[in-house]
Amino acid sequence: MSESGGANANAKKGAGELKVSKIRRGTVIDHIPAGMAPAVLRVLGIDRGVSDIVVMAMNVRSRSLGRKDIVKIENRVIDEETLQRIAIIAPEATINIVEEYQIIKKDRISLPRELHGVLKCPNRYCITNDPQEGVPTLFLCEREKPLELRCHYCEGLVRGEQVELIL
Ligand code: CTP
Ligand code: ZN
After folding, report:
1. Which of 33, 97, 148, 159 would be 105's cystine partner, CB 3.0–4.6 Å?
2. Cβ(28) to ligand 1 under 6 A?
């Protein structure tokens, strides 16, 4: 997908080329797997309303992924805990930090080895699911592709498609 022309990049250019506005300052989450942008918005809390500009594109063409989603948020830097949640639903995503229309930093998301309080354990007998104990969950990443995480407490294995985020 080619996007050029700064702030007024919404005008139609080549046939079949999708134009999405560039942002002035903030974060662009690029290379989100197609269809996962709504889940990313939920993790960012944007489904609960925000005052800054948010741009979402779904199913746009990507050279590397075929189709991808993009989320752009003005005036926002994404904290580490939120990045960990995004890493679980969009492991291929790129985080671009934008200042004055220029990308000043571009990072691939990396999944940490330990996830504290990020995922719910699916085992209902796990100590982390006992409200009286109040033990925050802890998962260890055993494998990234496909994603496999193990609960530190009950040692249950959770696969990528089964993960339930704590939001
Ligand atoms: N972007 C934006 N606002 C800007 C600058 C960039 O919204 N002021 C967006 C672009 O639209 C693109 C993403 O940030 O979706 C990454 O931009 P860029 O690095 O220029 O694109 P690519 O080179 O295609 O990125 P990559 O190499 O990561 O695929
Ligand atoms: Zn458990």
Report:
1. 97
2. yes
